[in-house]
Amino acid sequence: MVSRFYLTCNVNFRNTPNQIRTMATNNMSTEEIATGEENDEDFEDAEEEVCLSNLDLSDAIEQTSTALKLFLNNKFTDAKARMEPGSNNSMYHALGYGTILYIQAVMTFDMTDIEAAIQALKKSLHVCDRHRRKYSFTETITRSGMKTSQLKEDEIHAELCYAECLLLRALLTFVQDENLISFVKGGLKIRECYKVYKECNKILQKRNFADEKQKLHFESGVLMGVGAFNLMISLLPSKVMKLLEFVGFSGNKKAGLQALLKGTEDLSSLRGPLCSIILIAYHTVVCYVLGLADGDIALAEELLKPCLNLYPKGALFLFFSGRIEEIKGNIDNALFRFEESIDSQQEWRQFHHLCFWELMWCHCFKGDWLMAMKYAERLCKESRWSKATYTYQKAAFLLMCDDQTEETKTHLHYLFSEVPRLKQRIAGKSLPIEKFAVFKAKRVIEQDSTLVLPALELIYVWNGFSILGKKEELLNPVLEKVEKTLNDIVNSKDDRIYYADDYCLALLLKGVCLKHKGSHFQAEQCFTEILTYEKKIKQDTFLLPYATVELAMLFLLEERLDDVKKFLDRAKKNYKSYLLESRLHFRIHAIRLQVNSMQSSDSSSNHSSQVLESPTDDIPSPSLEHTESIESTNL
User: How far is CA 227 from CA 216, 224, 293, 295, 613, in A?
Assistant: First the structure.
């Protein structure tokens, strides 16, 4: 009734509750007035809306901070209820409400949730835009309107909230429709968001804030936006980076990490906990999926401790705690933490899927294929992300089990045959991992339900050997399994249609095991032998560039930087259109960044040794506080 009442009366939100009560009564039906059962509730809602519309900036930030605390304490519905009433008027309520719906949408991949989030974020952008400074045509041309002293407190916060809403809206655009126009629209929104963050960074550098508390909240938002953008863009492969730089984007990994780290210094700031979450996720997840498994786990642990103290039952922080234990190779501790995260809340079961995914891999690392299959099956039933991938994983784990019955073989054939049918398109494209799953599933059917070490291949694809390599009791059984399989392949050479493919896959897995055991020379022999089969491999052509990059990573460990560059160039120039190509390009880019870092460190060391005898003062490391270079070289 309240929404109908607002539409009918065109209420001025500055009116008093009594005036609103009078207008509402005039617009109610006779039956509603007669019963009077729901009128009090409607009036209470109207009065609450009026109250929220008159919130000043400090109160709005305080209420949004309260909602964030509720969310991080697993009170998701309560957090949403806190934000929704004021989302038509307060920019921070609009941002909070839109963000909660965005998180719900990306975790469910349900089109109804995605559409609801898009509509909420559209409204949030409109609310934020109402609070932004309106510039005249002359001010827009001369940029004189950008003098920070002329902007009110709520106007600079409106810029920040607008940028955050715009980024979330752009990311959902990629998922909503499957056409080129969606990509163009999303790209334009991200570019506008990027420009707004640059302006916010200028404001932070130049403005004298009257209220230190509001400066703290604004600064944490700028640090989060600038840091996340720099980090995100710096991770992209060089080919994509050149295109982005052409249209005005640039990213600096070091500056991004510094900005986010500075943002974590005060968890009482509105976006302080969010800076911690982004950094922890980067060091524990992103570095292991897209990078060289070189995340700073000690820093992640340090950042996680105060978060767990504040939110000891927070499902997300318990998940990260489990992830850290998993990365260390403490699989039993990780299993306990993931189960604890699941038990901490039942309100948003989508959070459970994160834990199911990691529980699946933990059981893989232990060689418990049936338990791994169980979690793949649960994901297939409950998660909407990629049923083709989950089904292939389920079948791959089952195929690893010994003593299979005829019933099991029939079920395996059914599972593998289902994978191509379950393939989907997200943001207009098929997922690379789904293409891989479909390719392998067809191969299994062609080879009469046989495939070489499919689960270990999946562990390799998801960079799981970086975890197996942490503990010999995890790695040794895998190496034994691989060596036994290699012998079986050689002994059955004449019976195999894809002998070279099977042999090189097992050889790649053996080389990776040896690398993590420190046997670099033997690992190099394995990877080099794979390259001699270039003309003989029939289907698994991805093994060649992956083996080439493995050699580059091996030389990186030995600091043979010239050889690293040579093999990286070979991997990029000699091989095209193979499975999981984009994933390898991310890894190649990460290696190049590492090489550049090592070379700059060497040059700095040489320079330091030359001036060591000259007394100098301590020079602080660059940060957003001391430099505006972010504006020109990155965000």
Answer: 16, 5, 21, 16, 36
The full DSSP string for 466-533 is: HHHTT-HHHHHHHHHHHHHHHHHHHHTGGG-TTHHHHHHHHHHHHHHHHHHTT-HHHHHHHHHHHHTT
Tell me how far apart the 2 most distant CA atoms of the chain are, in Å.
Answer: 93
CA atoms of 324 and 327, how far apart (whole Å): 5
Q: Tell me which DSSP letter residue 361 carries.
A: H
pLDDT digits (tens, 9 = 90+) for 487-521: 999 999 998 999 999 999 999 999 999 999 999 99
Distance CA 333, CA 338 (A): 9
Cα(2)–Cα(14) distance, integer angstroms:
16
Amino acid letter, 500:
A
**What beta strand segments (E) does 120-273 contain?**
none
Which residue bears the tokens 């560039």?
545
* Beta bridge partner(s), residue 426: 429
Which residues are CB-neighbours of 632 under 8 A, at least 6 positions away?
Answer: none
Instruction: Fill in the DSSP letter of residue 286.
Output: I
Q: Are 185 and 115 spatial neighbours (Cβ–Cβ below 8 Å)?
A: no
- Are the beta carbons of 251 and 230 closer than 8 angstroms? yes
Distance CA 292, CA 72 (A): 30
Whose CA is closest to 132, among 190, 77, 192, 181? Answer: 192
Q: Answer yes or no: are the C-beta atoms of 465 and 496 closer than 8 Å.
A: no
Using the 8-state DSSP alphabet, how is residue 134 labeled? Answer: P
* Three-state secondary-structure class, residue 425: strand
CA distances from 15 to 33, 45, 50, 455 (A): 22, 14, 8, 66
d(C-alpha 117, C-alpha 107), whole Å? 12
For residue 497, which amino acid is it? I
Q: Are 321 and 307 in contact (CB under 8 A)?
A: no
The DSSP H or E segment spanning 411 is helix 406-422
In 528-551, which positions are buried (b, 16+ CB within 10 angstroms) versus exposed (e)? Answer: eebbebeeebebbbbbbbbbbbbb
Taking only the tens place, the pLDDT of each residue in 174-233 is: 665 545 566 667 777 888 888 899 999 999 998 888 888 889 999 999 999 999 988 988
Q: In 132-179, which residue ranges form alpha helices assigned H by DSSP?
A: 137-142, 153-176
Answer for the pair 366, 468: CB distance below 8 angstroms, yes or no.
no
| Helices 315-328 and 331-343, packing angle to 10 deg | 170
For residue 38, what are the β-bridge partners? none
